[in-house]
Predict the structure.
Amino acid sequence: FEWSSFAEFVDRLPPLGLNVAQLVGHIPVRIAAMGVEDRPPRPQELELMKALVAEAMETGAVGFSTGLMYPPSSYADTDEIVALTEVCAKFGGAYHSHVRDMGLRVFEAVQEAVDIGQRTGARVQVSHMKINNRKHWGRATELMDVVERARLAGQEVVCDAYPYTAGSGGLKNASLPKW
């Protein structure tokens, strides 16, 4: 890449005829601070990640995003995501999550995103709400109830779904065990 910060990335965008709202991603922030290590960040690494999120928010990012199904984001625990989302929330940014699991643990994964929003005060966007495990097929209304309960309690939580039956995350990044 020809940039090393969010600001440098934005400066390299060509003139656009559309409005663009850029998110700062957890994966590049984590890689910049600690590579692709499968472990919690050391205190100085977490501070660097927080500084990178703050720099991105100061230079125009509108929120913080995670891809918790994909390494190395999948190596992060909830507290790490909360710490980074707190920084984003101080700037009025939203938390966007491709949650940890859309299969067997989809209910826990969506609840985790809701909990992160509750703990930080950030608005929450759950990306690609779906159920990928036959055990839970037919339970979409119950899954949406997780979001609806949060909304009824005053939390700003939304989700999206794509209108097709395929994905493109790749076998290596999302479908194999972490080991």
